[in-house]
Amino acid sequence: MWIADNWKDYEVIDCSKGEKLERWGKYTLLRPDPQVIWDTPKRAAEWKKLNGHYHRSSKGGGEWDFFDLPEQWSINYKSLTFNLKPFSFKHTGLFPEQAVNWDWCAEKIKNAGRPVKVLNLFAYTGGATLSAAAAGASVTHVDASKGMVGWAKENAASSGLSDAPIRWLVDDCVKFVEREIRRGNKYDGIIMDPPSYGRGPKGEIWKIEESIHNFVKLTSQILSDDPIFFLINSYTTGLQPAVLTYMISTEIQKKFGGKTESDEIGLPVRETGLVLPCGASGRWCK
Question: Is 91 contained in some domain?
Answer without folding.
Answer: no
